[in-house]
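Hi V.,

You were right to ask for the full record rather than a summary. Here it is.
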Amino acid sequence: MKTIRRTLPLSLLLVLLAPAAASAAARTIPAPLPEHPGNIFLAGEKVSVVIPVLDLAVWRVTDYDGKTVAEGRTTSGRAEIAALPVGWYELCWGDGDSPDRRTSLAVLQRLAAPTPETSPIGLDVAMAWFYKEPQMPAAANLCALAGINWVRDRLNWGEMEKKRGEFAPAPTKYDASARIQSEAGLRVLQVNHSSPFWANPNYKRFPADLRDAYRFYREMARRWAGQVAAFEPWNEADIVQFGGHTGAEMASLQKAARLGLKEGNPGAVACQNVFASANKAILEDLAANQAWPYFDTFNLHHYAKSDDYPGIYAALRAASAGRPLWTTEFSMPVPWSGDEKRKEPSDADLRVQSERVAKAFAAALHEGSVAAFYFLLPHYVEGKTQFGILRPDLTPRPAYVALAAVGRLLADARPMGRLKDVPQNVRAFVFRARPGGEEREVLVAWTTEGTVELALALPDAPVPVYDHLGRARPGPLALSPAPIFAVLTSGSAAGLALDPPPQTPPHAAGQACPVVLQAVWPKERVDLKQSAYRIAAGKAETVPVYVYNFSAKPVEGTLEVAGPEGWKLDLAKTVQIPPGERVQLPLTVEAPAAAAAKCETVRLQGSFGPAGQPILSLRLAPEPKQL
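Predicted structure:
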């Protein structure tokens, strides 16, 4: 994990690797389940697929390129096929024109070594939501066969804690998914994105009382210690679909959730509640609230073209405080077309979907993502967009085979740089990786359009080359819009001219404080674009502020408030809080009438002796009319 060793202090590195160390001995090379769910086989295995027709029906198998590679007649309700090389295939019977007379299958290369616990290759599986318990082991096995290290699950807080303090007894579907994925050798990231109705009637918004968040994450971390390695306390809180919270609100939730997680399981990775966008105001607001001691990783999402990644990552990297970047949702999805029930992409779009997988990973890893979760394993649509790489019956789309190529060939990948002095239409990235468990340097390259034969001065020849599905492709480095992987011996890249990956910002120091400050403001008076609370200019407004004590001892301290010149501000100077309690203090704010339409910052600074110095920074947007 060389990049992290260079940029993180030893204490944080140990926190991030502790869950891996606990399970490293248990991880082995995965094998398919006996029934081969999803028609997924390994190279060298005989392929046997159930066909729901009478015996002696004629069948044929075509590969990704449309070439017929096998034919025969069913016996005992199955198509018995000789071993096939690595790739994606379609099996048709009868006339084959109807979707009911076709299915897909895949042949993957068997992993030569267990997937490294530090590999950045991850997958959003949403296991608990998409798969019933009998199907979970199959889905988990397909992840492991593809060389996946991290998987992301989904949690519904209200189902786990139906009443305050009353947690659902095990086993629930969430317990099952955590156990099954962990037993499959996968590292699990869990995420929630709603409040129980008892915690906030507007379930899209954070709980009004942060003690609820603290207690919930404490109990979940304790309950799943050794199974769930990491938690995102909220999904995409910065956009309206998931509550539309300001940076200050995101910081306050993060602080409470992190304190709870570490109380429940000190080894749990406390991720920043993840960003869906790079809204400058929200990012600056979060930073002003000094949230960085409360997250081990800085998490983000994107669905943009890979050429747009540098700008996206630059904005979010700058707000990361030097913490590792985790991209917990990303892809470049395709539309579905045709049958409303099937919601299946066209053959052309299935090819596009598969060709985009390696591109997205290569570009994201180059930008510094140390854990990248492709979205999404299961069949899932939003509007006219299909995200899933498996169909409902677990049979593969070509993108699943492309993901397995990434999992195998970019195992433990760390970016070395991007090729310089190449044609304008070439995208080429070099990684230090461990395909097959051996240190190698791997080139991932493609063109934006057209074809190019890439000539490189390499010390060893021939160079093993694989296409985007992981199929061996001997010969020169012939590039097209479909990516290729070239596996080089260690040290080969020394002779290549590379633009290095972007630098990680300095690691911002800081200690988590058990005293947390929170402002509560009506949702309808939040200006999300400015990450601000709207107040009336020329009128005294009262912003409720809560001071929490998440320690086991009573705390006492002072609070200071500062704001723009000409503003009238008033807040109680001293406060005492019993352990596990909160105290409400009214913050009175009066902006002069002339301040209308200008967003300003009001900052609260606490001093609580050994407990620390909590901060709350609020962006306030005065408006000329009374609200």
